[in-house]
Amino acid sequence: MIVKIKNLKINAFIGVHKHEKIHRQEILVNIALEYDSKTAAASDNIYDAVDYELIAQKISETCANTRFALLETMVERITGIVMEDARITKATIEADKPQAIPGADSVSLTHTVVKG
Predict the structure, then answer these.
(1) HEC string of 51-90?
(2) 2-114: which CATH number, 1.10.10.60, 3.40.50.2300, 3.50.30.10, 3.30.1130.10?
(3) In whole angstroms, what is the distance from residue 58 CA to residue 60 CA?
(4) Would the pTM count as exceeding 0.90?
(5) Which one, out of 26, 60, 79, 92, has a CA that is 20 to 30 A from the CA of 85?
(6) pLDDT surpassing 90 at residue 20
């Protein structure tokens, strides 16, 4: 099964420019994670499922408490948090930085990791 977290809004210090080091920016994070959900579906028990609320909370807290120079670093950190759950076999993380370039909707990075 694929679980998606769409447009998770994170306010973080991210960037190399002086104004980016002073003011937080909103980053939009989209996550698609895959795991075998048969046990969770059969038991209908939250403890057998991937806790996507906990994953989102960990990502938000980590990004709020870390200063990043590069979006690449943030995406790698987010990927690590997502992949902490041993049941997750694949994850794709996309992070959008809307204020990166004047005149552009955003700059985004996408990273996919597969276990095994």
Answers:
(1) CHHHHHHHHHHHHHCCEECCHHHHHHHHHHHHCCCCCEEE
(2) 3.30.1130.10
(3) 6
(4) yes
(5) 26
(6) no
